[in-house]
Amino acid sequence: xxxxxxxxxxxxxxxxxxxxxxxxxxxxxxxxxxxxxxxxxxxxxxxxxxxxxxxxxxxxxxxxxxxxxxxxxxxxxxxxxxx
Length: 83
Ligand code: SF4
Ligand code: SF4
Known about the structure:
Blueprint: E1 4-6, H1 16-20, E2 26-29, E3 34-37, H2 48-52, E4 58-60, H3 73-79
The structure holds iron/sulfur cluster (2 copies).
């Protein structure tokens, strides 16, 4: 089973993970305005949610998401002198 973490303090409640997940792992807590992991056991590690999340709030143990470098500000700063 894939182990997941949703960092609640980072979540900005955009619901993109809720909408994109093909196996309906998430629900949305309207009161707290954050996504909630409801069915971790159904995660197939497609990483769509991690890729989309604007806050980097979603992690999957052993499945690091690789984003294009221009989306990674820290990496971009390191290589900007070569651009
Ligand atoms: S995509 Fe990220 S910020 Fe948006 S609701 Fe999901 S966990 Fe929260
Ligand atoms: S990795 Fe894919 S299957 Fe797993 S929670 Fe995210 S969107 Fe859903």
